[in-house]
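Per reviewer request, we include the raw input and output of the structure prediction for the construct analysed in the revised manuscript.
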Amino acid sequence: MPELPEVETIANGVNERVRGARIVSVWTSGKPQTFKSPENEIEEVLTGARIERVRRVGKTVVVTLGREQGQAEFLVHLGMTGRLLVAEREVPLPAHTHAVLTLADGREVRFVDPRRFGRLSVVREAYLGPGAEPTTIGDEEFAKLFRGRKVAIKAALLNQSLLHGVGNIYADESLFRAGIRPTRAAGKLTRTELARLREALQKVLARAIELGGSSVSDYVDAEGMTGYFQIEHAVYGRGGEACKVCGTAIKKMVLGGRGTHYCPVCQR
């Protein structure tokens, strides 16, 4: 599933290409599960609207629309295999395309999702997301999120009502860089450890955004290009391989139903 850096990369790419463009028509596939809002409402809200901005909130791509009837936002959650692509009209439509926004200049914004776990919807107010923004949160606010929590720190990092946007890859990578074992109780981490974790998380996210995200499955950016941060993964997806720091074999376990990777020596 695309996580914060991948969604940020996609949102920035789409924003660069279509900001200021007007949507002249909307086509949707009618396939079940894809549409959180009724398809006719999506078409009504988007048709004729001007794209004012495309940004990321958590793991959601948010398209702010300028309309005579008042501002609205188009929300694109990519799910497991969703892609948001900007293409010329003559480029063949990919299989599993579920929405096409045709722009006044003839280009198209296409939502493609083979497994149909993504969701498209429209809202009439600014979308803020369920939790705190991990790339800008400060030490004090970060520490408060985990105070008194008995769950494992890895599970707490994945709780979108606490921090929106952090997923499996970047939780594992941040915990490794902070030297914290993923099974430790969140509420028992010291302030020093939490400050170290916040710093590691923000550095990992920033570096992943710089490299266009991690392409470990179906993820591509707005132009169909893969990311490169997977080359720098220290633990994620490296179960049984040697730790890049100490040489110990990376452990893989299931924690809260999610595959979790860590170094038993570097993380305590």
